[in-house]
User: Fold this.
Amino acid sequence: MKDLIDRFLSEMLAQGRSARTASTYRSGLYRFANEIGKPLGKLRSRDIQEWLMGLSGIGPCRRHNIRCALSSFFAWCRRWEYLPADKDIMFQVSTIKRPEKVMPWLSKAEVRKVVEKGCSKALKGFLKRKARALIKFLALTSMRLNEALSLRWNHIHYDKGYIDYTMKGGKQDIYALDNQLVELLKDYREKYDHWQRMAQRKKLNSTVECAKYDYVFPARTGKKWRHAYDAIRQAGKAVGVRIHPHMLRHSFAQWYIEDKGRIEGLQVLMGHKRISTTQGYYHQHLNLKKRARKAVKFNI
Assistant:
């Protein structure tokens, strides 16, 4: 059965489905193949339902994902005649009511507090300056952490006014530079070059490695900075602000909405494929206003 599962997943990817969806389907289908104990030709609806009811240690969303994977897989098997059309494998994927997802975000004052005080208290040396620049960069661009950490200096084109970067999923895109971003990056580059000169005087290998990989926000070894998440968390903890890098992306969206920006503009800036994803931020913003309005008790 695993050979068929691999073919099914390969066709999914070829049709443009995301690698993340394929990975989610793969884990569920492999678990099914390992635990069901019967070949595909001898399966019945009852066997599948009993297996689904016996699943333990997973939440309703994960269970729903497994049902979707099975439904799609069996439909694909019928289409390619690995299963007879009249074979008794029929079950419905019931919809689940997901709890309303609240996207945590920070105010501009909280971000400034983390940048100005938190980084100074929790971090030292160039690490402090690098964390400050990264937090500001994430808050001003709404980039995901991995997108920012993958940036190289040759991706920044000051003369043409844009950054070219690799988005989530491997797609290439550009981000427009404004005066604030240019000032931030040039100021950070001065500190970066100073750190490199100090490392060179101490005859450390980091100068060679940084030149080799050319990352904007490198680790001390010059490779991709793997502990950026922890550095940002520590800076927030030092001043009593709960923060993680993706909160800065949510914060950017909330600030944009508060400034009455158009939804199409936010979709482009955040790199969303579907506008329905961007609408989630507007929906949350409206819910926040509704809850605030309910707190009003006075009448006129």
Notes: The chain has a mean pLDDT of 88.
